[in-house]
Structure formats: structure tokens, C-alpha cells
Specification:
The chain has 216 residues and is of the alpha+beta class. The protein has 2 domains: 54-175, Jelly Rolls (Sandwich), CATH 2.60.120.10; 176-215, no CATH class. It contains 5 helices and 10 strands; from the N terminus they run ααββββββββββααα. It has helices at residues 12-24, 62-66, 179-184, 191-197, 202-212; strands spanning 74-78, 92-98, 103-108, 114-120, 122-128, 134-140, 144-147, 152-156, 163-169, 177-178. The strands form 2 sheets. Strands 1-2-9-4-7 form a 5-stranded antiparallel β-sheet, with no helix packed on it. A 5-stranded antiparallel β-sheet has the order 6-5-8-3-10. Residues 59-206 form the Cupin type-1 domain. Its main location: secreted. Keywords: Apoplast, Glycoprotein, Manganese, Metal-binding, Secreted, Signal. Oxalate binds at residues 104, 109, 114. Oligomer (believed to be a pentamer but probably hexamer).
Length: 216
């Protein structure tokens, strides 16, 4: 069965986040990287005569690939911010590590599609398209899955073993909009507005906000 097995492992508050994905999918806004008129872009603070092969090389993912999966979900990025040579190249990577039972929560990338390759372990993944259709799949090492640009999606390690994946993005800066954090975390949207939007009560909204509040 290609479902996320949510029935046995999510509370009513967590189920609200699934409904949130269905509600937000039609509202996804997308963009893309602009075309450039040169082979590559040199940072304004760098003298072109100092550019060597090292500028086009990045070793920042070595540690993430070697790291044993932590208890919770972690991500190591190689985007334009970490690897300036990607500016204008419309590509970037991320190494995703999942401890048993951990999840990369519902989110979108407004500027890129995402191609996920499972390196180790297994994941249950899914996305919701702009018509509200839900697509899920169980993946094992060597499998790939594409998340279309701007769609609400997630990855869940429902097993007892760690998992690791590599994501490729069609943008040097794919962007990230975490639905739980954006709506119930730092945005300070009024509780009544959220309660009415999701047809629930203020107490449920406050419980969700409390769970996403930064730990002291």
C-alpha cells in the first residue's frame, strides 16, 4: 500500500496539517531562475582574474553524506547561498537525513521542482497538486520521485531504520515555505483567522502554535 500510514501515528492536531496541505495546494505560487547572458556569474566582490577551478567546486556535503542519520530530520544544502558558483545555473542539491519515525514536514519550493533519490533506507512520500489530487508512494534505496514545482509535499520515514536521500532542484535558490511554521509558527496569524480557515476551534490552533514554538 502506497499510503503514509498516518492513521496509526498522527494525532487529531497532526491530521489538521494534512488538511492544511490539501487547502494550500491550489494557492501555490511559482517562479523560476532568470536566464543569464554569460556562462557563469562571478560575485561582485571577486576579481575575475582570481577565479580558478576551486570556484566551481564545493565539498560541503561530504559530512552530511557520511553522517549517521540523527534522531530527527536534518538537511544539508548546496544552494547558491552555500555554493556561489550556482548563481545563474538553475540547479542545486540537498542531502536529507531521516531518523526512524522522523518527517520532512509539509512544505513547498516556490521556484523549483524537486527530484528525490533514496540513497539508503526507505521513505513514504507524497504531494498534492493544484487540483487537490493526492499522490503518495513508498520508496526504497535506488528509487526516485519527482515533486512538481510549487506543490505541497513531504517525506516520512515510518520504519525503524534511518534513511538518507539526495534532492536535486531546478533552481539555484529553490526557496522553502514550511506550512506548519509559516501558518502556526513565526507568522503570528490571528488565532481566530486560523480557526475559521480550518473550521476548528481556537484551542486547537493554540495547541499547534505551542508545539511549534521555539524551545527555551
Amino acid at each position: 500500500m502506497a499510503a503514509l500510514k498516518l492513521n496509526n501515528c498522527m494525532t487529531s492536531s497532526s491530521l489538521l496539517l494534512v488538511l492544511l496541505a490539501l487547502w494550500a495546494a491550489p494557492l501555490a505560487a511559482v517562479a523560476g531562475d532568470p536566464d543569464i547572458l554569460t556562462d557563469y556569474i562571478i560575485p561582485a566582490t571577486t576579481n575575475p582574474v582570481n577565479i580558478t577551478g576551486a570556484f566551481f567546486s564545493y565539498s560541503g556535503l561530504r559530512g552530511a553524506l557520511a553522517l549517521q542519520a540523527p534522531e530527527n530530520f536534518t538537511v544539508a544544502k548546496a544552494s547558491m547561498a552555500e555554493f556561489p558558483a550556482l548563481n545563474g545555473q538553475s540547479v542545486s542539491y540537498a542531502v536529507l537525513s531521516y531518523g526512524p519515525g522522523s518527517i520532512n514536514p509539509t512544505h513547498t519550493h516556490p521556484r523549483a521542482s524537486e527530484l528525490l533519490l533514496i540513497l539508503d533506507g526507505a521513505l513514504s512520500v507524497g504531494f498534492v497538486d493544484t487540483a487537490g489530487n493526492l499522490f503518495t508512494q513508498d520508496l526504497a534505496a535506488g528509487d526516485m520521485f519527482v515533486f512538481p514545482k510549487g506543490t505541497v509535499h513531504w517525506q516520512f520515514n515510518s520504519g525503524t531504520q534511518p534513511a538518507k536521500a539526495l534532492s536535486a532542484f531546478g533552481s539555484a535558490a529553490a526557496g522553502l515555505v514550511s506550512l506548519p511554521v509559516t501558518l502556526f509558527g513565526a507568522s503570528n496569524i490571528d488565532d481566530v483567522v486560523l480557526a475559521k480557515s480550518f473550521k476548528t476551534d481556537v484551542a486547537t490552533i493554540q495547541k499547534l502554535k505551542a508545539g511549534l514554538a521555539p524551545k527555551p
